[in-house]
Structures are given as structure tokens and as C-alpha cells.
Write a structure and sequence with these properties.
globular; binds adenosine-5'-diphosphate; binds magnesium ion; six-stranded parallel β-sheet; alpha/beta; seven-stranded parallel β-sheet; single chain; 15% strand
Amino acid sequence: APPADSVLHEALHATFGFNAFRGVQEQVVRRIMADRSTLAVMPTGAGKSLTYQLPAVLREGTCVVISPLIALMHDQLRSAEANGIRAAALTSADLDREQTIERFRAGALDLLYVAPERASQPHFRELLRRAPLTLFAIDEAHCVSEWGHDFRPDYRLLRPLFDEFPAVPRLALTATADAHTRADILAQLGIPEEGLIVAGFDRPNIRYRIQPRDQPVRQLTRLLGENPGPGIVYAQTRSQVERLAEALAGTGRPVLAYHAGLPPEVRAANQAAFVASEDMVMVATIAFGMGIDKPDVRFVAHAGLPKSIEAYYQETGRAGRDGDPSVAVMLWGADDFARARQRLGEVEPQRQAGERQRLDALASLVETAGCRRAILLRHFGEDPPQGCGNCDNCLEAPGVVDATETARKLLSAIYRTGQS
Ligand code: ADP
Ligand code: MG
């Protein structure tokens, strides 16, 4: 029988200290408690982890969580353990693997984190046969789709594994999936269509501004001047990060850099300093941000074109998780589009259509003279409000600024040439 309301709410409070579910969380948890496989599409920060952690605590047996990155797994592990949840990870970085396997088989784990490469190996399958299972949770589930923005072939090996345990429900989670990707995730993971739950994507406290990049250092300096709180500036390459960090340090604000070329201890120290700070600017590649839980980020700037609308939404979504006013500024150049088009020619043929669609969607976001939020929300299948009142185009009276007109012309000239 499904658990009574009071049981779920008491467990929510006892385990996490929260007084209420947020958004669709309760709906997702109820489905899992009723053994119904689900795909939950919930924006970053919406609280996806809780939707598998709570059932894992309430039900007998272990929830096996598929997660693509060791760093992500360890973040999750730490916060689960801080809530008294019995959790472990099986990765090459975990030296207590024997002990973890023992605990798993003895039914002494609520959560077991594992990467898809390991999950699909025969000896892991053997292990699953001899352990009590209660749920498969698939984090970053868009990785299973070639239409998604971050395809990982190993995710394709999960379905055959899950199919061996037909009584165990599946919960796929992602922040970023357009309609096409959602349908693909459902099919690839064997989740019925009625199992799709989509949370609201609107982040009304984020003000979107998208403008041509002419003098990036000056443009960003102005942004820093207007926004004294903590912020992130995304640059595209390591050397761009270094250069921008140096230039912006000249404004007198505390500025740190973050990219994959820095030693791990420097990255960890910079990240910790940013999380603790009330005025720090982090100049970073997109390697920075996943798994960071800082509610008071006041701005996110892109010094160049992001990879896709999904990536843009996810990266800008790191601003204003506390609900206070925040800004997202994108500076783009025609050369960004030219490069993106060039890369399009280099991807494998079977992925070209998807990549082209992704780039087109990004171009419409950049070139629109209409509401930016409307384009974002429609992209995620949501009906937008009539004029959001909180993006550059909604705020600036038409005709006063013809930057968008310029943008459109530039793009037609450069990006659209040669497109059939
Ligand atoms: P996601 O994976 O969707 O990006 P997380 O699971 O990391 O989000 O949760 C984001 C933050 O929201 C975490 O700090 C978490 O503790 C908090 N949170 C989740 N659910 C609730 C809730 N019902 N009430 C209050 N805070 C919540
Ligand atoms: Mg998450």
C-alpha cells in the first residue's frame, strides 16, 4: 500500500530537516514508492537528489545510483552522509571497495553510487544478483541520448542491466532535456511515457541579457560594478580564463580562476574560497559549477557563446538560487558562431542533425528581438508568460536599442550562410 502523507512528511523532516516538499518532488517520490518507473526533468537546484534518497531511506534494500563523474558522486555522498543516510561509492578513487561490497550485500546501504562503465561490467551484474535492490536512479540521464548535449555511450549499456531486474523501478533524472531528448531517454531506459514528470523551468528572479561582445573587459567591468555580490564569469579556454581573471583583478574585486589545467588542490581551494565569499568573482571554464551549492551567486556571465541552450540554462541557473534578483549576461561574437559552424562539420554524421538543431536554437535565442525567457521556456516545452518583464528585450523599448537588429543581420551574414 502507498505510504500515508504523514509517513512521507515525517521522513522528509527526520532525514533532511525540511518542512515541505518542493515542486514536483512529492509526486516523484510517490511514484517511486509505488514502484513506478519515472523520468523527472527538474531544473538545477530543484532538489532531484531527494527524490531517490528519500525512497532509499524508506524502503528496504539499496538504491543504486548511476552518476557520470566521481566528483559528483563524492559531493552527493558527503551530503547524504551528513543527513545520516548510509551511502557509499564504488569507484577507482574509493579504497574501501571490499568493505562497501560487504555492506551492500548485507543490506546495510541505502545508496550505492557507481559510474556507468562499472555498472555495466559482468562482475557488477553478479554483485547485483546477490544484493537487495530497491531502486535504480540514473542521474544526468540525458547522457543516454545522442540528442542530449552530453552523450555517454556507456549509458546505453544500462538498459540491458536494468532489464535483468524487472521488479526494480527506475528513476531517471535530468535538468536539461528538450522534448526530443526526453522521448529518447524514456525509450533508452525503458520507462513508460506516462512516467514523465516535468517541473517548471522558469527562474523569474534571473534577468537575462544577451549582447554582442565588443570590448569584453570593459563590458564585464561594468557588470562587476553593477553587481557587488559573488559571480561567475565563464570563458571558453584556459588561456582566456587566465587573461580575463588578470584583467578583472584590476577592478579591485577579489578574482579567482578555475580550469582543468590547475592543480587539483588549487581548484579545490579556489572553489572553497568562492563558496565562502560574499563578493568573489570566479573566472572559469565550464569545468566549474557542477555540484556547487552556493545560493547567493548574483551574476553569471558568459564571455562567449555557450555550447547549447541546455548548457546556457544550466550554467545561468547557478545564479540566484536563493530567489533574490540576479543577472545572466551573455557576450557573443559572430566568430563564436563561425567556429561553432565549423565544428558542426567535424562531428560524426549521425550526430550532425542534433548538433545543428542545437546551434539553431542557440542562434534564435541570441537573435530574437522578443522575450528571451519565452525562447528558453518554449525550448523546454513550457508555455511562457506574455512578456517576462525581466530580460533585456522586454525591458528596453523597441527602437531605442537596435543592437538586436544588428545581431540579426550579423548572424544572417555569417552563421546562416551555406545553410540549406
Ligand atoms: P539538483 O540535483 O536538482 O540540482 P539538489 O538535489 O542538489 O538539486 O538540491 C539542491 C538544494 O536544494 C540542496 O541544497 C538541497 O538540500 C535543497 N533542497 C532539496 N529539496 C528541498 C526541500 N524540499 N526543501 C528545502 N530545500 C531543499
Ligand atoms: Mg543533482
